[in-house]
Structure formats: structure tokens, C-alpha cells
Design goal:
eight-stranded mixed β-sheet, 6 helices, 31% helix, globular
Length: 186
């Protein structure tokens, strides 16, 4: 499960998931400055292009270190980033990773997050040789819970005061999806 030497784009029926570059900073700033988008992410809403460039630098660093991979979500025919989906805390030794995602509010309810999530999950199991994908979701974030459950994730329990973000301790539900549970969909 070695890190790919170059970033691989993923194409779905309606979307292209691709590497995020500094040229995408304005697009990230547009949706990550929205409190409704960031409220369950443990991030304060972005206030500057520098915030977006820092996020892009983080995407690049996790890819370079082999600890994650984050795709920018674009609609075919448009090159504007409208969200992202990808892996973090990737463990080669244990063949597992966390998955995360967010989407611009204007695109909520259109199936884009689900289409992206399915493509990234398939990539993780087939190309990164993952056996387990985890999703850590705040209890108040019912749309994300419904999305992962619709994609076969099982809630395993509540991690109490698991993260300290934005000046408070957050509980997180632990969800997981195993390769054997997803294989029929590959």
C-alpha cells in the first residue's frame, strides 16, 4: 500500500475528483468561509485566501508524507472546486484510514457528496489496499451520518471528548466500513 508517486484523478458519472492546487484557493475560500459548511469540521470559517492556501498546503503535506490524500470535487465541464473528499491518518501497517468530506452549501442535496464518497471509498479499497475505512462524525451532524450509513458504514460507538477544536471538546461517533462489506460494489 505504497503512496502513489503522482496524484491520481478520479472520474465519476458527473464529477472529476482531482488534486487541489494553489490556483483553487479562491474556490476553497468561497465555501470554507461558510459557517454552515465548517460547523462540524472542527474549523473556524475561513476569512482569507491565506486560510485556503494553508488548507491546500496541508493537503499537499499529507500526500507527500503518505498519511492521506484529498481530492477536490469538481463538476464535469467546470473546473471550480466545490468540495473535497479524501483520506487522513492513513496507516499502511494496519491497512486503514479515516475518510472526510465537505461540500459547498449550494450543492447540498444533489447526490454529489455520495457520488464522491463512493468513488473515494472504491479507490481506497482497490488502489490503496485499505481493509478498513473510518468516519468520525459529530453527533449533531446527522446529514453526514445518513450519508455514511447509506454507503454501508456501521456506527461502532461514541468517542467521548475525542477532539479539542474551536475551544471545546467534541464527542465523535466512530463509523467503519470494511473491504469485505464493500467488495460486492466494486
Amino acid at each position: 500500500m505504497d503512496r502513489p508517486h503522482k496524484f491520481t484523478s478520479i472520474e465519476t458519472e458527473r464529477l472529476i475528483l482531482r488534486e487541489v492546487t494553489d490556483e483553487d484557493a479562491d474556490s476553497l475560500l468561497a465555501y470554507l468561509s461558510d459557517e454552515e459548511v465548517t460547523k462540524h469540521m472542527g474549523l473556524a470559517p475561513f476569512t482569507s485566501k491565506e486560510d485556503a492556501l494553508d488548507e491546500i498546503a496541508w493537503y499537499e503535506s499529507i500526500f507527500e508524507k503518505g498519511t492521506g490524500m484529498r481530492w477536490g470535487i469538481t463538476i464535469k465541464g467546470e473546473d471550480r472546486i466545490i468540495g473535497s473528499c479524501g483520506f487522513l491518518n492513513l496507516s499502511n501497517k494496519h491497512h486503514r484510514s479515516e475518510i472526510g468530506f465537505e461540500l459547498s452549501r449550494e450543492h447540498w442535496g444533489k447526490g454529489i457528496a455520495g457520488e464522491s464518497l463512493q468513488a473515494v471509498i472504491a479507490y481506497g479499497f482497490s488502489q490503496l489496499e485499505l481493509n478498513r475505512i473510518e468516519a468520525l462524525i459529530e453527533p449533531a451532524n446527522s446529514p453526514s451520518q445518513k450519508l455514511v450509513e447509506a454507503n454501508g458504514f456501521v456506527q461502532e460507538g461514541l468517542l467521548r471528548s475525542y477532539e479539542y477544536t474551536r475551544g471545546k471538546f467534541d464527542d465523535l461517533y466512530m463509523y467503519s466500513l470494511l473491504k469485505r462489506e464493500f467488495d460486492g460494489k466494486l
